[in-house]
Amino acid sequence: MSQKEFEFLKIINKHLRSSYLGDDCAYLEDSNLVISSDCLIEGIHFKLEYMTPSEIARKSLLVNISDILASGANPRYVSIVLSGKLSDEFIDEFYKEVKKVSGEFNLEITGGDLSKGPSISIAVTILGEVGTRRISSRKNACADYIVAVVGEFGSSAQGLEDLEYGIRDNYFVNYHKKPPLHPKIVEEIATKTKHKYAMMDSSDGLCDCLYQISEKSNVRIDVQYKKIPKKVKNKEMVLFGGEDYSLVVCLDKRDYKKIAGLTEIGICSAGEGVFVDNKELKYRGFDHFC
Prior knowledge:
With 290 residues, the chain is of the alpha+beta class. The chain has helices at 3-16, 53-71, 88-104, 155-164, 171-177, 183-192, 206-217, 235-240, 253-256, and strands spanning 26-28, 33-41, 74-84, 108-116, 121-129, 146-150, 198-201, 219-223, 247-251, 263-270, 274-276, 279-280. The strands form two sheets. Strands 7-9-6-10-8-11-12 form a seven-stranded mixed β-sheet. Helix 3 links the parallel strand 3 (74-84) and strand 4. The protein is globular, with a radius of gyration of 19 Å. The termini are close together.
């Protein structure tokens, strides 16, 4: 999240003061659902010169599914608003992939809207079922909690850079276009934990996740860089690169031992701030408004 986004949210909160604002998903406890909305804009989140309609469709769904998974819920219902300079071919390829992804994640497409516009934008609203799952919040971390991750960091940023340099097919490019999600591990976390936990996806980078949790939970987070799963050598990409959609989880030590597939990278303690190898990490997130 960029500084400008923080400023906008302060203005919004001043007017709305909603108890639902703060996490990527709102937990509608009375309905036993979580809900989230997100959008992808041509030129900001993707470019037609290196992403096909099917790749755009897949990513637009995956990034929204990821928000629901990061809440601990099970993604179930999706509405899609698609606008731009649309053609029959684009619509056909886009919704063919929508059908494929919805089948993979057992989603129901509940509707949406189509509109003409100057450039392509995709706005998605997604609902997740809670059932008996324990829902996360970035304010739930406590001192002595383990900081763990699922997935890797920096690969999507490397893929985006490769695309900008004209590379169209390698591991990092595919990771950027089709980020892997982790629904099975999410289910384990949401059903096996006995204590509250904080979980976010790294849509805006690992640093952003750590700082959001640290600030909302009023804890200090210490991380060891060598423990962070990564395939890139660029430290900036690992710490600050966005769109990996990996998971950052802060949970009780007893719960951590129950979940297979987590990688411990650090610890929460009393205090404030984020530290990597005992050096304070200055906040920086992906800027959607630059």
